[in-house]
């Protein structure tokens, strides 16, 4: 463009110069003098040469000027082009930053489509898809497709903007926005599924946090102790309900507005000093006195630093202080009580010095009160008693003394027997204290030892008496040990004589006897009667020995806390009883085994069968690929077989539920004609396949019945299925319904092969299936299900059949008033 302008300018200047020279030459050509003419020609030549030089110079300067302008303009255009390319790249980057489509129109061009065209086709191949993006009906829901088409039409015609939320046919969320920009119509389609999911997750997280805060606030409100939170300035920011009640405020808000403090200023200053001393290392704990709900209480105040201030709680320990004072008073009372006990008590500290003794201790050893008040050591007291010859004589007294003092290092209480020189017997218990030291209990058991000797003599007499009995007899004492056992008891249970002589506990005796009678429960009952503290009643149980012997065991409590065990051989009578019950038990176990098998196996079969049906439906719908003719036939056969098997399993489960008593009827008002028609629809395919006709005899005004509609339809379906199975092509099946004042009868009659009387008597039994020469196949549950459901309704089933004359099954349902049924249930 610059070069053309320069050439035109140079041509104009050259023409001017040539014209000027031509005029000048013409003027000079006029003189006639040759010399003058020659001179004039020379001057003219010089003028022409000068003009040409001037022309060339001007032309060069003009060319350089235009070239500089052209170069500068090219640079400016290149910079502008780079800026446009950068803007285009940024726009492309922003456009591709998310899944979206931009469609623009103007008045004279086709729509321009940019962006992720695959958005409209769920990421599938978008080849040629740009021409189909605006076919909204192919990838949006019908309602949304109509809405956006109307909105786009309004945008193109009137420039009306819009903003719509759409749903694609595969469930994605699409945002559509249209507007008019600079004379163009612009449509933006953007996928928002991920954004909505993130927003939903954020909302769920926020709701969870809010619920957590609400739960924490509710928990703090439920705490009976006052709880508060202070801000950084020390003012109350939040309190719970217990705090408001403690400061006698009508509500938490009132307590915060009025700034009611639970602790007075000196108490708060004490907490502040404690916190400053701890320098924030853990919570501050202080025991303070404050007025709570109008009464003075002792509080343990806990305050801890938080990000937004401090949090605190006040625990009422007034009762604890009261209990502590009561404990001290109780301890003083215990000391007074111990002083009244006949058992001598002496307490020594961890340095083995006497810190307490009662009056019985002084009287037992006849010690001087002044000596005991001097807090002598345990060793000094033993030496003093030995010097007074009040202890038994020991060959090595020092070793005996060290053994007594070793109780200070023991973990558990130690019991020993001291036999004094005056004939008394002391039971000495040395019990270590948890804080160190030792407590002695001296119990004079001289009288008890004498009584025990006389008791042992009496027991020997009883043992000799029991040994003469033929029945096994044993006596257990109140301590659970074997006191007496006659020879018959030891011989029958094969007890070791040494074990019997050691007076074993009842557990050891039972362990030895269980080798011959291993049943655990009778022995547990016997042990409870011997050692139990709650029950002192008699017991009668039965023991079975491994050799077949059966014993009737009787445990009878004795007045002195002992228990008498007697055994009687009842093997003969038990054998007769056992023979009668074994057969009954076998029958019951067989029935339980059958019910358990039906229940578990049926449920284990139905789960995989449901999967088979589901996947077969997917194959039949050809959602995963087209099927050929043979494959489609196989799929249909699988569906029919699976459906038949599912019906059998459901029938088995229904029967198992009926037997277990867990099947409940869902009664409602059931329209009889509609129920019959529903059952007919379920059998239409088989009727057409077998070329059978059905004659319905259902009066229009027969009305409704209060029953379980699902089970009534199942009853009719099973009756119709049996009628179809036992009918020949071209025959007729009759369905009849009649209503009386007391009941409703439904009957299904076929004109097929019929059945003899011996077969008709078994058709309602389970798993009784007779083909009778027909193509009918089944497991024999249909009529059994019918009878069970009818009887659950309180009705009855009758069957009429004869060979060659067909079969008629009639079901009678009693008419029940729904209101009366509800009142009876209540």
TrEMBL record:
Ranges that cross the membrane: 39-64
Alphabetical keyword list: Coiled coil, Kinase, Membrane, Phosphoprotein, Transferase, Transmembrane, Transmembrane helix
All copies of domain Histidine kinase, residue ranges: 600-817
Coiled coil segments of this chain: 189-219
UniProt xrefs under PROSITE patterns: HIS_KIN (PS50109)
MF GO annotations: histidine phosphotransfer kinase activity; phosphorelay sensor kinase activity
Catalyzed reaction equations: ATP + protein L-histidine = ADP + protein N-phospho-L-histidine
InterPro entries with a match to the protein in the record: HATPase_C_sf (IPR036890), HATPase_dom (IPR003594), His_kinase_dom (IPR005467), HisK_dim/P_dom (IPR003661), HisK_dim/P_sf (IPR036097), PAS (IPR000014), PAS-like_dom_sf (IPR035965), Sig_transdc_His_kin-like_C (IPR004358)
Protein name: histidine kinase
């Amino acid at each position: 463009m610059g070069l053309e302008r320069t050439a035109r300018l140079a041509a104009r200047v050259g023409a001017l110069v040539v014209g000027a020279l031509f005029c000048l030459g013409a003027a000079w050509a006029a003189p006639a003098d040759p010399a003058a003419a020659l001179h004039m020609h020379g001057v003219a030549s010089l003028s022409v040469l000068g003009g040409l030089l001037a022309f060339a110079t001007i032309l060069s300067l003009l060319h350089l000027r235009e070239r500089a302008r052209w170069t500068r303009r090219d640079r400016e255009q290149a910079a502008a082009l780079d800026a446009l390319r950068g803007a285009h790249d940024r726009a492309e980057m922003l456009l591709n930053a998310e899944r979206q489509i931009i469609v623009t129109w103007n008045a004279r061009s086709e729509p321009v489509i940019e962006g992720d065209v695959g958005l409209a086709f769920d990421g599938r191949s978008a080849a040629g898809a740009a021409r189909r993006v605006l076919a909204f009906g192919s990838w949006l829901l019908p309602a949304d497709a109509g809405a956006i088409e109307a909105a786009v039409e309004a945008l193109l015609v009137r420039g009306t903007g819009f903003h719509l939320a759409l749903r694609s046919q595969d469930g994605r969320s699409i945002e559509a926005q249209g507007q008019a920009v600079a004379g163009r119509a612009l449509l933006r389609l953007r996928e928002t599924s991920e954004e909505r999911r993130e927003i939903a997750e954020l909302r769920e997280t926020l709701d969870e946090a809010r619920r957590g805060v609400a739960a924490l606030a509710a928990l703090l409100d439920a705490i009976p102790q006052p709880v508060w939170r202070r801000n950084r300035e020390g003012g109350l920011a939040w309190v719970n309900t217990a705090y408001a009640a403690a400061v006698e405020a009508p509500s938490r808000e009132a307590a915060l507005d009025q700034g009611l403090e639970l602790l007075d200023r000196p108490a708060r200053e004490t907490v502040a000093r404690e916190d400053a001393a701890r320098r924030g290392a853990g919570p501050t704990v202080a025991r303070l006195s404050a007025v709570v709900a109008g009464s003075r209480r002792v509080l343990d105040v806990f305050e801890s630093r938080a990000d937004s201030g401090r949090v605190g709680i006040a625990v009422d320990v007034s009762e604890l202080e009261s209990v502590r004072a009561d404990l001290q008073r109780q301890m003083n009372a215990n000391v007074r009580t111990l002083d009244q006990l006949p058992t001598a008590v002496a307490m020594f500290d961890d340095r083995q010095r006497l810190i307490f003794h009662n009056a019985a201790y002084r009287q037992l050893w006849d010690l001087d009160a002044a000596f005991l008040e001097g807090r002598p050591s345990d060793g000094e007291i033993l030496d003093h008693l030995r010097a007074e010859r009040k202890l038994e004589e020991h060959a090595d007294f020092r070793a005996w003394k060290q053994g007594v003092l070793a109780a200070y290092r023991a973990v558990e209480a130690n019991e020993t027997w001291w036999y004094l020189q005056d004939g008394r017997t002391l039971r000495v218990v040395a019990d270590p204290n948890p804080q160190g030291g030792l407590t002695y209990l001296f119990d004079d058991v001289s009288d008890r030892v004498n009584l025990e000797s006389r008791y042992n003599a009496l027991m020997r007499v009883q043992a000799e008496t029991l040994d003469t009995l033929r029945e096994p007899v044993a006596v257990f004492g109140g301590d659970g040990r074997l006191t007496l056992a006659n020879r018959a008891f030891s011989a029958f249970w094969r007890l070791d004589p040494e074990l019997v002589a050691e007076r074993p506990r009842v557990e050891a005796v039972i362990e030895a006897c269980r080798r011959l009678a291993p049943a655990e429960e009778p022995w547990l009952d016997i042990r409870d009667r011997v050692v139990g503290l709650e029950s002192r009643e008699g017991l009668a149980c039965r023991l079975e020995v491994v050799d077949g012997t059966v014993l009737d065991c009787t445990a009878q409590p004795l007045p002195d806390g002992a228990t008498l065990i007697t055994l009687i051989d009842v093997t003969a009578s038990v054998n007769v009883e056992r023979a009668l019950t074994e057969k009954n038990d076998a029958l019951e176990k067989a029935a339980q085994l059958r019910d358990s098998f039906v229940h578990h196996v049926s449920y284990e079969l139905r789960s995989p069968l449901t999967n088979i049906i589901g996947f077969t439906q997917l194959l039949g719908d050809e959602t995963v690929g087209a099927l050929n003719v043979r494959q489609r036939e196989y799929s249909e056969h699988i569906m029919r077989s699976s459906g038949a098997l599912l019906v059998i399993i459901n029938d088995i489960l229904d029967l198992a539920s009926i037997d277990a008593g867990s099947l409940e009827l869902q009664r409602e008002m059931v329209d009889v004609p509609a129920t019959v028609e529903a059952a007919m629809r379920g059998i239409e395919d088989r009727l057409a396949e077998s070329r059978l006709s059905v004659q319905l005899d259902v009066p229009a005004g027969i009305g409704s019945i209060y029953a379980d509609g699902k089970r009534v339809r199942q009853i009719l379906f099973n009756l119709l299925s049996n009628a179809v199975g036992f009918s020949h092509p071209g025959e007729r099946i009759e369905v009849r319904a009649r209503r009386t004042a007391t009941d409703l009868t439904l009957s299904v009659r076929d004109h097929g092969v019929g059945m003899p009387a011996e077969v008709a008597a078994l058709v309602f039994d389970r798993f009784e299936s007779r083909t009778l020469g027909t193509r009918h196949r089944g497991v024999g549950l249909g009529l059994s299900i019918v009878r069970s459901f009818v009887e659950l309704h309180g009705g009855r089933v009758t069957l009429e059949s004869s060979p060659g004359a067909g079969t008629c099954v009639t079901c009678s349902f009693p008419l029940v008033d729904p209101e009366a049924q509800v009142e009876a249930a209540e």
